[in-house]
Amino acid sequence: MIRKRVLVTGGAGFLGSHLCERLLGDGCDVLCVDNFYTGRRDNITHLLGNPHFEVMRHDITFPLYVEVDEIYNLACPASPIHYQFDPVQTTKTSVIGSINMLGLAKRVKARILQASTSEIYGDPEIHPQPETYSGNVNIIGPRACYDEGKRCAETLFFDYHRQHKVRIKVARIFNTYGPRMHPKDGRVVSNFIVQALSGQPISIYGRGSQTRSFLYVDDLIEGLVRLMATPDEVTGPINLGSDVEMPIEALAKKIIGLAESRSTIEYHPLPQDDPTRRQADTTRARSILGWQPTVDVDTGLRRTITYFRELLAAYPDAAR
Ligand code: NAD
Ligand code: UDP
Questions:
Q1: Residue having the nearest C-alpha atom to atom 4 of ligand 1
Q2: Is a pLDDT exceeding 70 seen at residue 320?
């Protein structure tokens, strides 16, 4: 049997590790490339015994010479606290990293999929956000290293497609959650669950009236794999996200209830440029990929709470 050789950059991260697992299950040879900036070996240790899985420590801001058939470009810190910690490196990862991965795709004639983000819409004036909306990003704000880096990466993908005929796919991923998020990742779902399970106050930024739509990780992975399998003329961008909009305060109360926690709620200042509303318009994903979310938020949160409960039982310090 000839196996497809697939490169996953950022493969030791939250989404990347789930994708590597899925691709191995689909019969691919998987090369996971990661510099372990926010990813962890623990996310992939269960895959290391598989002869079709290989890990390479490498920073994609440097060129990479490998032979592969498909590339999923997921390398980039995704949590605001992590991507703002070293903003220059964040932009380099999206821009120089994309140039390197697109150059690789061009040389070996591989298909390449970019993990773009709903953040390219910034603080949106159009709701829900369709792919035709060009966004409202503060170019010089603290989130710009991520938002503008990802926007430039999309530009590069489409220019390599037009100029060099590289076969591209661009997925705009909305807030995704699930097992293997880092307990100190800083994103809202992991923060609230860890706080609820360890009896700490739940930290709401602002008044909690800002909204997000939350997608369970398995649904996201299904969407990415379907997008990669589309005919060459399908380039995207395609939104992959939930279309159920939820205020952050409602999420906090839901997690307290599902975790049977006695945590109280504490309000903190809202970070600068925190988007007010966000909800995926999934019309394209539904019609082009035949894709839709299948895991409702209660089910997904219950699974994620179970994961963190087991993690905290094994490593109590993970919450501190
Ligand atoms: P994550 O931080 O868990 O994973 C990112 C991975 O990339 C980590 O393993 C990290 O070590 C690695 N990495 C970072 N810089 C690198 C570099 N220069 N070279 C090699 N590896 C590098 O985040 P995630 O949630 O798994 O996100 C994965 C991708 O999906 C990111 O590109 C992110 O922007 C995108 N995305 C995620 C979400 C979400 O809700 N999870 C939403 C939108 C977009
Ligand atoms: N948030 C919060 N408390 C936290 C972490 C995040 O209230 O402990 C809020 C944050 O201000 C934002 C929303 O939750 O409005 C989603 O934040 P996250 O960092 O998960 O993702 P993003 O802002 O990139 O969508």
A1: 13
A2: no
- In this structure, which ligand is nearest to the CA of 96? 1
pTM assigned to the model: 0.98
| pLDDT of 283 strictly over 80 | yes
Q: How many residues does the chain have?
A: 320
Ligand 1 site-directed mutation target among 31, 38, 86, 112, most atoms within 8 Å of CB? 38
Closest-CA residue, ligand 1 atom 2, reads: 77
The question of whether 65 is a catalytic residue gets the answer no
Residue appearing with tokens 């009896």: 199
CA of 108 to the centre of ligand 2 (A): 39
Ligand 2 centroid distance, CA of 226 (Å)? 28
Domains in the chain: ranges and CATH = 5-180+215-243+275-294 (3.40.50.720)
- The ligand with the least distance to the CA atom of 40 is 1
What are the pLDDT digits (tens) for 69-108? 999 999 999 999 999 999 999 999 999 999 999 999 999 9
d(CA 29, CA 6) in angstroms, rounded, equals 6
**Which tokens hold the place of 121?**
């819409």
Distance 15 CA to ligand 1 centre (A): 7
